[in-house]
Structure formats: structure tokens, C-alpha cells
Amino acid sequence: MDEESRRRKAIELLDQGVRPSEVLRRLERSRDWLSKWRRRFDELGAAGLVGRSHAPRHHPWTTSARVVRAIVAARERLERRARGRGFAGVGSDAVAWELELARVRPLPSRRTIERVLARHGRTARVARPAPRPPAEPYPAPMARRPGDLQQTDLVGPRHLRTPRGPEGFYSFHTVDVAGGGAASFQFPDKSGESFCRYLAEIAWPALGIPRIWQVDNESALAGLPGQRHIFTQPVRLALLLGAEVRFIPEGEPGRNADVESYNALWQARVLHRFDCPGLARLARVSARFDRWYMEARPHPKLSVAQHGTRFPAALLASLDGALPRPPRRFSIDDHRGAQGEIRLPLARGRISWVRRVDEHGRLRLIDQQLRLGRRAANQYVVATLSTGIGEIRVWLGTEIVSRFPFDAPERVVHPLVRRGR
User: Fold this and answer.
1) How many C-alpha atoms does 328 have within 13 Å on its Cβ side?
2) What CATH number is given for 149-241+250-335 in this structure?
3) Which of 20, 47, 226, 336 has its C-alpha lying 20 to 30 A from 324's C-alpha?
4) Tens digits of per-residue pLDDT, 124-143?
5) Each residue of 74-105: b (16+ CB within 10 Å) or e?
6) pTM score, two decimals?
């Protein structure tokens, strides 16, 4: 007998003259229970015996119809603007900025905007399972202020359809992790000289020279560690201009998540949206995209309360003079060898490699086979070469677990740009 049937049975027994104590004995219920349902029956009849929901009638956290309408209307405006032109997006961050400009209050969260758009069929986003946290801590560098950490990566090789046939290129991208700024440029190759030109003439004049420059293990950057050929021209440039070079683990591009996200946005808004019949046209469109990204797109990491602005360009302008930039008279062309190749000097500084130790506690680093012990097995370590003292130290957390000498192949000079560490 279900609960509602038991209530009806109790009323029937009472109407038949059965004593309340006997009704309670037969139905195994309390006196308060019987009084409650007798009162409900007297007030409402049989309808009073139907259970009522205990859910609250009012939900103060429910998005109001007014805000829902504003969200949908903002999305429609963005879709009209994005149709066939420009770089503007239509996602939750863009909608939130539209609502901010319209002074909609209360301002809904990004997650609320996504739920409303999904309910109204205005998004094709597929829910993805949350990523599982790693089994071991990853030694990520801190990025609290603009200039603390920059990530650089390549998109390519890609090809343009030109009147002369396919034209290949690589797009060089750099993102400032804390400040949100970005810089891009396209070259026909990914040589060390192209990297140096990009950094010295495009990225670092625009964004400032970072404390830590984080990159993947692209051969033009990492060289051939197994043969001790690690001082590539881009690495030499970074050290000469006072930046620490940091290589992420091999095969883990997600460690450069900020620049990877920029890569995807650049491809969607530039490469796939505009027809460019050559590199010159692509460079102009990409420069427009960067201005939009820096000046017109509110960055999700920036807030007016904390940074005074939501736009990376405005944040950089407010720090004018605080971030080091390449010296005015510096030119990589002044460092060409007899055959015309770039030959930068080796400066004092640090190069770090983040690597994961194998299950036996062993690590292959440059030309060294290190035995770090079982405690380090399957853990991330940071191996840091200090060119000024000629030593590599391997850190597990805050502890040095190995060190060995590494002699520089040439005289080490002082960096051109000095900064506090």
C-alpha cells in the first residue's frame, strides 16, 4: 500500500467508526500523522489527501525573464555583426560584455549565459567531461603580473591559395599569460632567424620582454639536447635580452594552454574567415585581428576591479615604462657572421627544462643519464642551467635532487637588459 492509499484507508476507517487508536495500530502511523490528514480531508476533501511538493515556490536564484530576454537579444545582435565580416565572437564572454554595455543588472555569470543560450537553441556547444586532475603536481611558473610569463607557439605549416599556386607559411604567436596581450606575425619558414626577428621586432617591442619565456621543444628553439647543441639563436636572443627560457615537457602542448587558445581563435577568426591571396594580405588581416584582440575584445582574465580595465592594450599602456623592451639600437642584423647567418653571443641567464621522470626514477637530460631515485619516479622535475656559473640543478619541488657541471662552449657576456629577479 502506497502512502496516498494509506491516507484514504485511514479516512474510510474513521468514517466507519473505527477508533483512532485502532486506525493507528492497523496503519502503523503516528497520532500527528492521522490528525494532519484528517484536517486536510476536512478542508479540501479527497484532493487534500494528495501529497504536496516540498520544493520552494519561489527560487531567488532563477534567472528572471527580463535577463533571459536580454541574453538572447544580445546573442542575436552579435550574430548579425559577425555574419561575413569582422572578428567578433558570439560566445558567453562576448554576450556578457554586451550585457555590461547595456547595463543589464544583475549581470549573469558566464555559466548562466551558456545555460540560457542552450535552452533557446542558440549554441552548438557540446558538454565535455571535466578533465581529471594530474596524479602529480606540475611545476607551473607563477604569472601574477604582465611580463611575468609569456608563451610562444607556431601555427603551421599552413598554405594560402595564391595566383601563383599554394604559398606556405608559419604564424608566430605570443601571449602574455597574466596581462592577456598577444602578438602575431607570419613568416615563410620557422628558422631560428625568423624566430629572432619575430621576437626582437614584433612580440617584445609590443608586449615587453618577459621574465620567463615559455616554449615547446621545436628544434629551432630547443636545438639538439642529446648532442649538447642547446644554445640556438632564439635562446641566445632571450638570454641576451634578460629573459629566462623555459621548455615545457615533450608531447604536452597543453602546458602552453594560453597560447594554444589564442592559436585556435586566430585560425577561426583570421585563417578560416578571410580569403587571403598572399602573405602580405594575411599579415594585414592578422594585424587587424591583433588590434581587435587587444583593444576591442574584453579579456576574460582581466577585470576593472583588479586591473582597471578589461582590455590588454589599455593595461599595457598603464604600465608604460615598467616593462623592459629591446634597446632602441638593437638589431639582429648587427650579429651576422661571414656567411650572413645570425650569430648572437651567449649571455648570462637561465634555461629550464620541465621533464617527467620515468617509473624507475631515471631522467635523460642533455647528455646525462640521471638516477633520481624512486621518490622522483613519475614526477615532474625542473632542470635549470645557469650559464653564468656553468651548472645544471634538477629541482623536485623546492629540493635540489641532482646537480652537475655544464661548461659553456664560449665566453659568456652580460645581458643587454637587466631586471630584478
Assistant:
1) 0
2) 3.30.420.10
3) 336
4) 554 555 555 555 689 999 99
5) bbeebeeebeeeebebbbbbbbbbbbeeeebe
6) 0.75
